[in-house]
Each structure stands twice: as structure tokens, then as C-alpha cells.
Design brief:
Shape: globular
CATH architecture of the largest domain: Alpha-Beta Barrel
Radius of gyration: 22 Å
Distance between the termini: 34 Å
Number of helices: 16
CATH class of the largest domain: Alpha Beta
Largest sheet: 8 strands, parallel
Number of domains: 2
Number of strands: 8
Oligomer: single chain
């Protein structure tokens, strides 16, 4: 969730039912060197609680120092990312790289646990590859040195995000009588039905949602409602989508300023309006505009447009857009 789960995105997720959230993962090396991007990621707000600051890195001394800096920002917990499979992270010894050296993982985690008064949690994967799915050993050893919860993504590092997540070992760990800490499952949960099925089948204490929340923050309340009632919430309307996108945009403006906010929001528009027919011209207008007020006006135009009754023959062309809208798009 790098460059996604920033405070504006988290605001929208919290508003739509997320119970526990984490910052974007923060480089320990960047944090101890006072790198501006890393330091900015420490920004947390009272409405986000409970919230954890997530750290990654491969050097124990740097991780301990980073944990102390993160603790000073007053989060509710410190989370260690031992799961990111991205090459640029792994090549520097961070994220899932440590799955190749379990003794180092354990000793570094213990050093972090011992350095802070805050609860420390860990997110990791099943193992480095199919031959080294050692997550059962990892879970027991990390519990023994004092972590307070463990999130497991149901793939190996070699898999990246390909194929289906395998929750079998996650369930086995949860049902291990030695394991007393909460076990959270992660990977491929993108519907309320799947959330209920996996909760019942594997007995996990909670579910971490990542990619499925991008452009669809309603998933948190949808899952919670389904678990409680067995019925579905009504899907978000076009107005709901616009409102979430607009709030996300306004919070980005507050936190980042107009230049960065306008640029970074461009990656979100296609996700918020995924599946809307005849939307191509509006999406193009959103991602090409650099004017804050124009974007606001365009979002309001989208809120009041009946995309489902447009002529499919004209889909994606500016002549599908009424005269007033064309003025906004072309201004």
C-alpha cells in the first residue's frame, strides 16, 4: 500500500468502517536520516485511532532507532513489515527478504520489542518460497519474544501477488494451542461472502484488507454488516463514489498542498469510478486537469450525470458530454 494508505486515504477508510489502520510502511534508514518523505509518513491524527506505524528495514540498529522515533509520534502500536515482496525493498534486506534468515528476524524483532513501551506487531508471509514455508516456526518464535499480534499474508515472497492466497497454514497457526496472540489473515479478501467463509473456516481473529479497499473503502462496512446480519448493504451509488472521491481529494489538499494532491489523486479516479459505463471522457478530464476548482466542479457534474442512459455509440467521446460540461472539460 505504498503511496496509497496515506492520511487522506485512511480518513476515507475510517469513515467507512475500518477498525484498525496502519501508516504506509516507513523506511528505517530514511527515518533515522531524517528524510522528508519518511518523516512525513509519521503524521497521524486522533480520528484514526487505533493506528500503527509500520516500519521496514534490514539493519537491527536502524530498526531499533526508527522504532524509538516512531514511538515519539504517539501511535497505538509499532508494526514491522516482514512481508513486502517488492524487489527494491527486498534487495536492501527489507520486507520479505528476512524470510531467508529467521534467526535474524527473531533477534531483530526482540530488539525492537525491548526498545519500546508500545505493543509491537508483525506482518509477514508464509515463507520465501514453496520449499521454505516456515511460518509455523516463525509464529511461535515471534510470540515467544513478545509480539502482540501477527498478520500473515497467504503467499510466499516468490509468488508476489500471483495465484490464490493459501490460508491453510494461517488457519493451522490460529488453531495451534501454543499460539495465544491474535492472528490476522490477509490475501484475496474482496467480498463479504469470502470474509465470512474464511473467518468460519480458519477461525482467525481478524482480516486485513489492502488492495480491495482501493477505490472501494465501503468494503469495511460491507463486511462488518454481512458478518452481523448475513445481508448485504446497498452498493455505493454514483453520489457515494463522488462523495468519497471528493473527501479524499479535499483531505489530500489539506495534507499535501495543491500541486502534489492534484497529481497524486490522478491514480485514484479510475478506481473510484470503476465499472461506470460511458465514463472515458470524464476520467480523461480528471487526470488531465491540474486546476483544483475545475476538478471539484467536474466531480459535481459527474455526481449529476446519468451515465447508464448515454448512447453506447458515443461512449468515450466529448460529444457525449452536454454543453456546460464541455465548457468545464475544455476550459
Amino acid at each position: 500500500m505504498e503511496d496509497v494508505s496515506d492520511p487522506p486515504f485512511r480518513y476515507v477508510c475510517k469513515k467507512n468502517g475500518a477498525d484498525l489502520m496502519y501508516t504506509e510502511f516507513i523506511s528505517s534508514e530514511g527515518l533515522i536520516r531524517d528524510a522528508a518523505k519518511s518523516v512525513q509518513k509519521l503524521d497521524i491524527f486522533e480520528y484514526e485511532r487505533p493506528i500503527g506505524i509500520q516500519l521496514f528495514g534490514g539493519e537491527p540498529d536502524s530498526m531499533v532507532e526508527a522504532a524509538k522515533i516512531a514511538a515519539a509520534a504517539n501511535p497505538d502500536l509499532i508494526d514491522i513489515n516482514y512481508g513486502c515482496p517488492v524487489k527494491k525493498v527486498v534487495c536492501k534486506g527489507g520486507g520479505a527478504a528476512i524470510l531467508q534468515d529467521i534467526p535474524k528476524m527473531v533477534s531483530m524483532t526482540k530488539a525492537i520489542v525491548d526498545s519500546t513501551h508500545l505493543p509491537v506487531t508483525v506482518k509477514t508471509r508464509l515463507g520465501w518460497d514453496d520449499r521454505t514455508k516456515n511460518i509455523e516456526e516463525v509464529a511461535e518464535r515471534l510470540q515467544d519474544i513478545g509480539i502482540k499480534a501477527l498478520t500473515i499474508h497467504g503467499r510466499t515472497r516468490v509468488q508476489l501477488y500471483k495465484g490464490d492466497a493459501d490460508w491453510t497454514l494461517i488457519g493451522k497457526i490460529k488453531n495451534n494451542p501454543r499460539i495465544q496472540i491474535p492472528i490476522f489473515g490477509n490475501g484475496d479478501i474482496d467480498t463479504p461472502e469470502k470474509a465470512l467463509e474464511y473467518k468460519n473456516r480458519y477461525g482467525i481473529d481478524g482480516i486485513m484488507i489492502g488492495r480491495a479497499s482501493i477505490g472501494h473503502p465501503w468494503i469495511f462496512n460491507e463486511i462488518k454488516h454481512y458478518l452481523q446480519t448475513g445481508t448485504h448493504l446497498a452498493p455505493p451509488t454514483l453520489s457515494d463514489r463522488v462523495e468519497a472521491c471528493l473527501i479524499h481529494f479535499e483531505k489530500s489538499l489539506e495534507w499535501k498542498g495543491p500541486v502534489i494532491a492534484v497529481n497524486e489523486m490522478k491514480r485514484h479516479y479510475a478506481n473510484y469510478f470503476k465499472g461506470i459505463p460511458n465514463f472515458k471522457a470524464y476520467r480523461t478530464a480528471l487526470v488531465t486537469s491540474n486546476d483544483v476548482n475545475q476538478i471539484r466542479e467536474l466531480l459535481e457534474i459527474i455526481r449529476n450525470t446519468d451515465f447508464y442512459n448515454m448512447s453506447s455509440e458515443l461512449s468515450g467521446h466529448h460529444d457525449t458530454i452536454p454543453y456546460r460540461e464541455q465548457e468545464v472539460l475544455n476550459s
